[in-house]
Amino acid sequence: MGKVYEGIDGRLREFIEEQKMFFVATAPLGGDGHINLSPKGRAGTLAVLDEKTVAYLDFGGSHAETMAHLRENGRITLMWCAFTRPPKVLRVHGTGEPVYRDDPRFSELLTRFDPGVDGPGLRAIIVVTAQRISDSCGYAVPFMEYVGERDTHARYFGQKSEAEFAAYCEVKEYNPASIDGLPALPLPLPPRPEPVRPEA
C-alpha cells in the first residue's frame, strides 16, 4: 500500500540517494501543449536540501522544456524507481524554480553538491519544493542491473569552452523557447560564477 509522507525523512533520503537515476515530469498550462518527461542521471547531481526541498544540476542539452514549464506554471513531479530489491516507487509532487547562473543564489546552492559532480555545461540549478511526497509498491518495475555511469555527456561538454557552450545554447532551437513556444533558457547565457564555499 502506498503512503503519504510529511517530509523527506532519513529513510526516504537514503532511498533517493541510492538510486542511479530519476525522472522529471512537467507540462504547460495549455491543453494542447506537450507534456515533458525526462530521465536524469550523472551520479551526485541531485541533492536533498531539507525535508521539503530537493535540487538538481541542469546541464546543457538540445531542449529546455522543464525550464519553460517551470517559468510558466512551476508544476513539477520527480520520480524514483527501485530497480533492485525491495520494490518501491517514490514521487515528489511540488513546485520548481530554475536558478540561473546570474542569480545570487546559484553559487551558494552549488556548494550543496559534491565538487566532483560539477562540470562544464551547467546552465541552471532546479530547486523543487515538495507539496506531496508519496510512495507506491513498484511491484511491476523490472529488475535492472547497474553497469556504470555513462560519461558521454560530460565528455562532450568538457570539450567546449565557456564561449563555445554559450554559442551552443544560442543555436539550439529549443533552448530559448520550448517546442510550444514558451520562454525557456534566458539568453545570452551569463558568465558562470564560481561556487562560494565556506572557509574551513
Structure description:
The chain is 20% helix and 30% strand. The chain has 200 residues and is of the alpha+beta class. The protein has one domain: Pnp Oxidase, Chain A (Roll), CATH 2.30.110.10. A hairpin with a 7-residue loop joins strand 6 and strand 7 (89-100). It is globular, with a radius of gyration of 17 Å.
- Give a count of the beta strands, DSSP E runs of length 2 or more: 8
Distance between the termini: 46 Å
- Using the coordinates shown, work out and report the CATH topology: Pnp Oxidase, Chain A
Strand content: 25-35%
Shape: globular
- Most strands sheet: 8 strands, antiparallel
Corresponding CATH superfamily: Electron Transport, Fmn-binding Protein, Chain A
Name the assembly state.
single chain
- Poorly predicted spans: none
CATH secondary-structure class: Mainly Beta
Rg calc? 17 Å
DSSP helix count? 5
The CATH architecture comes to Roll
Can you lay out the helices and strands and say which pair or pack?
Elements: E1 3-5, H1 10-18, E2 22-26, E3 36-40, E4 46-50, E5 53-59, H2 65-72, E6 75-81, E7 89-100, H3 105-110, E8 122-136, H4 152-158, H5 162-171
Antiparallel strand pairs: 1-8, 2-3, 2-6, 4-5, 5-8, 6-7, 7-8
Primary descriptors:
alpha+beta, 8-stranded antiparallel sheet, 20% helix, 200 residues, Pnp Oxidase, Chain A
